[in-house]
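Second attempt. The first submission of ABC transporter substrate-binding protein had a stray character pasted in from the spreadsheet, which I only caught after the job came back as garbage. Lesson logged: always re-copy from the clean sequence file. Corrected sequence (459 aa) follows.
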Amino acid sequence: MPRIRHLLSPVLAVAVGVGATACSLSPDDAGDTTQIVVGYQSKTINTVTAGTLLRARGDFEKRLEQAGEASGTRYSVRWEDYDTGAPITTGMIAGKIDIGSMGDYPLLINGSRANADPATATSILSVTGSSPKGSLNMVVAQPDSPIDSVDDLRGKRVSASVGSAGHGTLVAALDQAGIPADQVEVANQQPEVGASTLESGKTDALAQFVAWPGLLVFQNKAKLIYDGAQLGRPTLHGTIARNTLVKDRPEVVEAFLKAQLDATAALVADPLAAAKQVADASGLPPEVVYLYNGPGGTDFNPALKPSLIEALAADKPYLQSIGSFPNPVDLDGFVDDAPLRSAVAATGGDYPALLARAGNESVAVGEVWYDGRDTAKTDDATAVLRLVRDAKAQNKEVTAAYVTDPVLGTRWFADHSVWLRDGDRFEAFTTADSARTWRESHPGAVTVGYDEAISQVRS
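This time the job returned cleanly.
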């Protein structure tokens, strides 16, 4: 385990120490309306179907109104926005947040702490977003840094939010690289603080979850040095709720899951429109949002697949590496897909089909976004270059161009990728490591810059 300055941030420290208090499911100020409190992370793209997009569309409120009409209960929703999952866990254990969404490592921490007492116990009810190889978490360094691989982090200072999915990926990456624990200092910082310290040079690298790596790279404030897909194991974010809510207000839980399904269907049907809506609501650039929720990005399948649960089980040792967790998570009891099965059936869906579906429902190898309006999807990176070249020749604005790493399967910005040319063929990679791997089987490939590749590509 890398050296960690201030092992637990103030937010996480509260999360692991708080006890149960009053339940949030109580009448609001009007006295005759039951308020449901939802904790979400507006800038975490993997949770938008249970957070930012869901809130912007009003799906939960609509489904709650339907549930209330059936039961004679009036509901209202209060949305609470956080930077990480830790304060959501704090609120859930304190009985002040009913439903939340967070990444895999925070989910495990939530379960470990909340389930130590039946009165505060929680359950994972659905997946909000996943990646089959783990590309949702990344490590970046300054654009002009000599660091271009996790192997270069020996003796360096890395910013990460301890207990987050980004930190968990960093720990696994260092272990994979065989870097001794005492050779990397981890500065425990919230994402925004970490971004600032990276830019100022107070830290050498930043390990975070989406959308922070993509945002900093898009802003030309960082370069990608480690793609979480290099670990080759699934990562996920999910919806979690207090068990008292699941037991006492099943109609509320079903309404939320139906609403998540509504938001998911809307995103899959028109990911570009969804990206613009999330960008407006979160303040993130739409190009960054679309990087993750566009075709071939995050998989928004809500099913609790066995492969994802197995990945959670494999992440359990992480808890022991960051502190004392007296209540190991029993995933058999912690993961509950019964409410989701019911919600899918009630909306005319097929849950077994969701479980069986392999890969992302929306797939594209390359894509070019024009003038903030339309996009063109392509079969390969070479075709992306042609589209960008032709657009420039026509004085047509390219809002963003996206490519898919052929080694790791990660969707990334074309102008921030590592490009190789092999004859007339061009390929783009998220990191120098990935490019080196591909080059092993393509010894004739040469490195080219993005602008150079555009000028060299043939019709």
